[in-house]
Amino acid sequence: MRSLTVMNMKFLISVASLLAAFSSVALSGADWSQKVAKSLEGITAENPKQERKLLVYSVTRGYRHKSIPTGLETMRLMAQKTGAFEVVISDDMNNFEPGVIDQFDAICFLNTTKDVFKPDKKEWKKMNSEERKQAGERELRLQKSLMNFLKGGKGFIGIHSATDTYYSWSEYGEMIGGYFDGHPWNAGTPVCIMVEEGQEEHACCAHLEGASLNFKEEIYQFKAPYDPNKLHILLKLDPEQNDLTKGKREDESYGVSWIKHHGEGRVFYSSLGHNDHVFANPKVLEHFLKGIQWALGDIEAEVKIGE
Ligand SMILES: [Zn+2]
Predict the structure, then answer these.
(1) Which of 77, 78, 234, 246 is within CB 3.0–4.6 Å of 257 for a Cys-Cys bond?
(2) Is 105 helix (H, G, I), strand (E, B) or coil?
(3) What residues does each domain of the chain span?
(4) Would you state the pLDDT for residue 71?
(5) Separation of 9 CA from ligand 1 center, angstroms?
(6) Which pTM was predicted?
(7) What is the three-state SS of 47-61?
(8) pLDDT digits (tens, 9 = 90+) for 55-77
(9) CA of 113 relative to ligand 1 center, distance in Å
(10) Taking residues 163-170, what's their average pLDDT?
């Protein structure tokens, strides 16, 4: 009887934890909106120097993250609640056409994957050879247009799988600062992300007051052109608090967020954004907001590359 009671208890506990786990991943869109809105309540943006317009693009030609709708809603609410920028959430490639792109101050690739200026496979199959030729020409035109936009002094923000994008276009890798090379710490791993030493006062990190972020998140390993000496790293995996033997980098450099220039342009990248909860975390939201405002040109922040 006693052992049966213990067994019942164990069963009940496992059902309860299963339900809890299920409910945490099964929040509806409206619930996420409420969570994000609440997290944004205490966050104040810097006053923009002028009206700013951000394009958020989330086209995928490979893996599609389930957190994309949450991420887009976060960007919408961040714009609405902070007044830091106007946001255009659109997967329309025409926004990258020369001339059209100039209306924006920065572009955000939010969980994009692979070759995002190419037609998708279904479209491609239906195309005749002339249409395919035109699609190829358009891809090159949009690539050039995005780089001209950036080099001329605009901004780029990459979220999570923005580094799992355009392996076939080396300038993109150089611009963003590295390519995805697996995630030795998968989505269910409790990780400890620390502020890079010396960056405690940086405009994008000061709100953390030197404290680490501790939650479950998928953390990327990067390959070339990733080079910590060519990036201004803001957040990284804490080497003391995480199992770095899971990774394969000899330099044990596992940057999580960084900033850099590309020509005159400002690039902010963070590999956070696999799990939905990340987009509702007030500390992450403030980090994203500061990074976005820096990329938009409204926050002064030091970019120090190579020591
Ligand atoms: Zn992911």
Answers:
(1) 234
(2) coil
(3) 27-296
(4) 98
(5) 36
(6) 0.91
(7) CCCCCCEEEEECCEC
(8) 999 999 999 999 999 999 999 99
(9) 10
(10) 98
